[in-house]
Amino acid sequence: MQDFRTFLPPERTLMGPGPSDVHPRVLNAMARSTVGHLDPLFIELMDNTKQLLQYAFKTTNALTMPVSAPGSAGMEACFANLIEAGDTVLVCVNGVFGTRMVENVKRMGATPVIVEDTWGEQTSLQKVEDALKQHPDIKIVAFVHAETSTGVRNDAQALCEIARQYDCLTIVDAVTSLGGIEVDVDGWQIDAIYSGSQKCLSCVPGLSPVSFSDKAVEVIKSRKTPVQSWFLDMNLIVGYWGQGGKRAYHHTAPVNSIYALYESLVMLKEEGLENAWQRHADGHKKLVAGLANIGIDMVVDENYRLPQLNVVRIPEGVDDAQVRKQLLDTYNLEIGAGLGDLAGKVWRIGLMGYACKDRNIDHCVAALKRVLT
Amino acid sequence: MQDFRTFLPPERTLMGPGPSDVHPRVLNAMARSTVGHLDPLFIELMDNTKQLLQYAFKTTNALTMPVSAPGSAGMEACFANLIEAGDTVLVCVNGVFGTRMVENVKRMGATPVIVEDTWGEQTSLQKVEDALKQHPDIKIVAFVHAETSTGVRNDAQALCEIARQYDCLTIVDAVTSLGGIEVDVDGWQIDAIYSGSQKCLSCVPGLSPVSFSDKAVEVIKSRKTPVQSWFLDMNLIVGYWGQGGKRAYHHTAPVNSIYALYESLVMLKEEGLENAWQRHADGHKKLVAGLANIGIDMVVDENYRLPQLNVVRIPEGVDDAQVRKQLLDTYNLEIGAGLGDLAGKVWRIGLMGYACKDRNIDHCVAALKRVLT
């Protein structure tokens, strides 16, 4: 058996689809002394983390907390708690994460009604409305707000409004949107939403902030069958993450990762949510201009393009993998490959959270220019 | 909204049921620069982490890796992958974590056959054999190796042998045993096993090492129905944690937590597995002697007592919560409360991983003595 040594990673610049650059304050928080997960000081930290997540999500939802696992588990938490076998769920698919939603629906014994749109385009509101008319048994409308695979922003506000007209609950994937563009859980009346720590929150990967409306909580409490996942059952988790005072043991929270998430949320609050959105919008404009100068075009229409996840066309004749390898090896710079149908055709350049700053944008454009010429 | 500041935790001594003290090397690893989860250097780190987990579990099982979530999710991963609706599963219950297994079995649409023993006693091999004779349809035997709620070691080797005689698969909870007492996955022919990072591995909470035998992998591959959890489906995770080369994206691994787990395993390897077990046995003896001196008795028979989790009787007339609060407030020392039927009657004193050392043992006995007199 080989000799194993302490791993000393290089300092990469993370401009892929996530994880994105983690702020040093957040990394420092990770290394602080671990306290017990039922320690009164940790319980206070949990309460403060909840309040800061309410701020980030723009909600007063009492059931707002981080699931102790990555975004995929946050997705599953939303679906598993709201769906019962036999339900019908409308899922909007215009990228990888929509298809993952369909997979979740199926594994819960529910029937998906799929509204499909071209990757790189928005979900059609008309198609959603047509499907809702055609299938009066639909209980939930699920969609991805910021499609990390395509760089498209779906119209969350409009989709929620249509869903409400047809008396449906909504599940929204905000993994890549939270902290980067407007997300307004109460204003848009979203029923269940999940995000990830490692995108625009500038935190390490591993946690999934979620929030459930009071209406969603009622649905969860009055289920006919138990939630199929014990680990993700909100009926139990609420006793662990409940507001103030006594906690019922459920699982052991990832204490140091919560330190990190808390610190990243403190920083978001210091900057101000709207300022963070503006910073992403400004950074995006600079990046687009810089890329245009070296002949690299955007794939998505600017009216529904994500500032924090820039999907760009790989120029003719360029070796996708070779360029990414060279950026990584020579410049310690990571950009993302295309997924699914877009593999080999696009790069995904992330400007998320701490990674969205002039230093990174200048470096990325300059490094790409050198590698491509 | 209040002002939120950076959280600066005190330096606690963690001698409860976990999380236990985290080694500074592991905390330092947490704070290192985050790399992408598909970065070639991270993929190499994943491979090395797998090899070190194989060392810790004493196995050559190819499917050995950490689930990206706490021990409860590792438990669910084992049950969800091996069970299909309609299966019959024997569960040994002699503490909290056995009952949690029953809950898992039920939520998967399977039928539990429960073999119950008194909390504080071992699972009766005879009762297990009787149940297997009586229910020839049992497919899986599940039990907890080290019951964190009672401090009892169940006889994992003997239980696996009986299960094999009746052609059953085994699922073993090794959350508190791994790294603290002998666990021999290949020697005992365990089919599925899960542990936690925050106990005898001296790592932060949040990850659950698991291992599946080739026989278990065959069962998972030939399922008639999909695994009910997408996030925990080993058919997909194996493509992400697969040995060497190309990885299929599944979820985003908690990069910095993997740094930490890796570092803790490097340290286990440096110490040597058998030496770590011996250190726990030696520490236990010292603690028992020290506690006896101040009139505190052990609850569990010494033949099947866990060295790393000492369940002790609270002396007559002593206020449980008050003592624990005083230890925490005055000495920054955490010990654990009793769970379930044992609440108010016992304390749980952990000697896990880095926490199992003379400094802690001396401090714990001295502090308890002062608080009790």
Describe, in plain words, how this protein is organized in 3D.
The structure is a homodimer of 373-residue chains. Chain A has 373 residues and is of the alpha/beta class. Chain A has two domains: 13-19 and 273-372, Aspartate Aminotransferase, domain 1 (Alpha-Beta Complex); 24-269, 3-Layer(aba) Sandwich (Aspartate Aminotransferase, domain 2). Chain A is 40% helix and 16% strand. In chain A, the strands form three sheets. A seven-stranded mixed β-sheet of chain A has the order 2-10-9-8-5-3-4, with helices on both faces. Chain A has a four-stranded mixed β-sheet with strand order 1-12-13-11. In chain A, strands 6-7 form a two-stranded antiparallel ribbon. The longest helix of chain A is centred in the C-terminal third of the chain and has 21 residues, at 273-293. At the A-B interface, helix 1, helix 2, helix 3, helix 4 and helix 9 of A face helix 1, helix 2, helix 3, helix 4 and helix 9 of B.
- Name the average pLDDT of chain A: 97
Count of distinct strands of chain A = 13
- Strand ordering within the main sheet of chain A: 2-10-9-8-5-3-4
Query: What class would the helix/strand composition of chain A place it in?
Result: alpha/beta
What CATH architecture label of the largest domain in chain A applies? 3-Layer(aba) Sandwich
Q: Give the N-terminus to C-terminus distance of chain A in angstroms.
A: 44 Å
Gyration radius of chain A (Cα, Å) is 21 Å
What pattern of helices and strands is seen along the backbone of chain A? EHHEHEHEHEEEHEEEHHHHEHEEH
| Unreliably modeled segments of chain A | none
CATH topology of the largest domain in chain A: Aspartate Aminotransferase, domain 2
Largest interface: A-B, 82 and 82 residues
